[in-house]
Amino acid sequence: MATAQSSTLDPTTSDASSILYEQLDQYPWDTDAEFQGGLAAILGPNPSPEQAADLTLHARCFYFSRKFNTHVDFDGYNAWRRQQNTAHAARINGDSSAPAATSTPPNEPQTSVASSSTSTATTAVEPAAPYPTSFAHIVELITTGQPIPGIKEIPSTVLEGQGTQSVKERRKKPWEKDTSEAVGATSSTEA
To answer: Domain residues of the chain, as ranges?
Structure first.
């Protein structure tokens, strides 16, 4: 009987691995600020959805193994997730849609990434606008010719009569001589 159970289990996972993968999967990734900060640094400004999903899974495995001092096999965890998603989809939709569920696992981490961080959600939803909304708004105001709030309007004409005259005497350059010194120097050379 025990041999029948062991033969029905996936050869890439064991009971201990399954428990570890369940703990990894149930960890509150969205509320862990340290993980979210590291993930945002890893993902960068505009990752592709596939790249974001792959990097997120790698980062989860790495962070979990460092935090809890355990070894997490990425390939084993990835296979376990596919198996769990296939089994879950088969339970929800029936056995006929199980092959279609195999294409959903790469998208599943993307939704968790999008919900976990506002900055990555913005870039994942709108890849065409990498600028912040305030910058995009300013660009729109400039292109439509509307005034930008907070910018002082400078007239294009010069106002005459409002300038001031300098009160200090102009500083002499080193090679220029004072007129009184120049007159004394010429009279002494003539004598």
So the answer is: 14-136
What DSSP state is assigned to residue 114? H
How many angstroms separate the CA atoms of 96 and 109, rounded?
24
Q: Which of 21, 34, 135, 144 is nearest to 84 (CA)?
A: 21
**Amino acid identity, position 184:** G
191, two tokens: 């004598």
**Nearest CA to 98 among 109, 87, 108, 107?**
87
Task: Residue count of the chain, please give it.
Answer: 191
**pTM score:** 0.41
**Torsion sign across C-alpha atoms 118, 121, 123, 128:** negative
Q: Per-residue pLDDT tens for 124-171?
A: 444 454 455 577 788 888 888 887 777 777 778 877 777 788 888 888
Is residue 81 within a helix (H) or strand (E), and if so which, with residue range?
Answer: helix 74-93
Quick: pLDDT tens for 110-130. 444 444 444 444 444 444 544
CA gap 56, 106 in Å, rounded = 11
Q: Count Cα neighbours of 158 within 13 Å in the Cβ-side half-sphere.
A: 3
